[in-house]
Design a protein that fits this description.
This protein is α/β, with parallel strands linked by helices. Helices cover 37% and strands 13% of the residues. It is built from 11 helices and 12 strands.
């Protein structure tokens, strides 16, 4: 079966993990700090704005704590969002307010958000769909006008930029995912960004029990290094040096990964022109760069599910991300979402990962084109 997502790991990651084993320190330590420094350079920011945690979902939940979201507050997000984002809002007793998206890019727009703003709105959480940057100028202007923080779920956008700035660093807080299905993978892990360095310090403490002083070897100040105090009732959500070792090596390979994914997308764009019955992804503006996390096609003829079944029967796995939150009954969402409904019923994500061979890419194109000849 040709997978939709697939990691690319090699001896470099194994060698770095072996070095961690030899060091006798498996927790959060020097390798973690190395990854933070390297990633800060990658996203062109100062390391005082970022730190690691064990998964991107922790970042989603932490955002609610850091921006003081509580019962009675409202948080706006596009209905095409990750379930973890919806859970983060609802876990605080806040109201999840969903808005529509652009039906072709599946990204939220400022006009979609503004329709949902009320006096109770305390934050906007958006996602850059598949690594395609949202049009951020208008959204950031909206945030400033209403004094609402903008939280960027950049889980899929580790290489995406908007007008020269990394996605995830445009708003008040951002986060990237390094789980097993992402491009830069370390099993599980995440990087969090805060525009306000003071808020970053607060979040880092909250994600480590709210500790006010370090203990053990890392404490070189206190005479009694086993003593501590807490400033909040936080919990423990850290990245260890084993996962950080993988991440350090993966970050080195990231430009090559993106180049290959870009080439695969180019082949799809060229070959699938023949399948005139599907809509290909729109071109992104010149002032943006793309991570190519998804390659999504749309079938505006009700045949999406049939094509997915046909491809699966021919050894090609496909999917649709993300199942719209307005259709998750537990969220009890209000409103109508015509663009999201269109996208959800007609969009298919086909395989795009750096391990795909040209033969596999062309086989996928052949089968999609063949389906059209047989079924359309």
């Amino acid at each position: 079966m040709i997978n939709v997502f697939q990691p690319s790991l090699g001896k470099e990651e194994l060698n770095r993990i072996e070095a961690v084993f030899r060091s006798n320190w498996l927790g959060k330590g020097a390798v973690n700090n190395e990854f933070i420094s390297d990633f800060a350079k990658h996203i062109k920011t100062e390391k005082e704005h970022i730190f690691t945690t064990n998964c991107c979902s922790e970042g989603l939940f932490a955002s609610m704590e850091m921006f003081g979201i509580n019962s009675g507050d409202e948080v706006i997000m596009p209905t095409i969002s990750f379930v973890g984002a919806g859970n983060a809002v609802c876990s605080r007793g806040a109201k999840l307010v969903l808005c529509d998206v652009d039906k072709r890019t599946l990204n939220v727009r400022a006009c979609d958000i503004e329709k949902k703003i009320t006096k109770k709105t305390k934050a906007v959480m958006l996602i850059h769909y598949g690594g395609i940057p949202c049009e951020m100028d208008e959204i950031l202007d909206l945030g400033r006008s209403y004094n609402i923080p903008i939280i960027e779920d950049s889980a899929c956008s580790v290489f995406s930029t908007y007008k020269g700035k990394a996605c995830g660093t445009l708003g008040d807080m951002g986060m990237w995912s390094f789980d097993a299905m992402k491009i830069l993978v370390c099993g599980d892990g995440s990087m969090l960004y805060f525009k306000d360095p003071e808020l970053k310090i607060k979040a880092e403490k909250w994600l480590y029990f709210g500790l006010e002083s370090k203990s053990g070897y890392s404490n070189s100040v206190d005479k009694k290094w086993w003593e501590y105090d807490v400033s909040s009732f936080g919990h423990r959500a850290i990245m260890n040096d084993i996962t950080a070792a993988m991440a350090v090596e993966q970050l080195k390979k990231l430009p090559d990964f993106i180049a290959r994914r870009s080439e695969i997308s180019r082949i799809y764009n060229e070959r699938l022109k023949e399948a005139e019955w599907i809509d290909l992804p729109l071109s992104i503006p010149e002032y943006c760069t793309h991570t190519y996390y998804f390659y999504h096609i749309q079938l505006p003829n009700g045949k999406r599910d049939d094509l997915a079944a046909y491809l699966r029967a021919n050894g090609i796995y496909t999917t649709f991300r993300y199942f719209p939150l307005n259709r998750v009954k537990h969220y009890d969402a209000d409103g109508s979402f015509p663009n999201s409904d269109y996208a959800s019923d007609n969009t298919l994500c086909i395989p795009v990962h750096q391990s795909l061979t040209d033969d596999e890419v062309n086989y996928i194109c052949d089968k999609i084109i063949q389906y059209g000849k047989e079924k359309m």
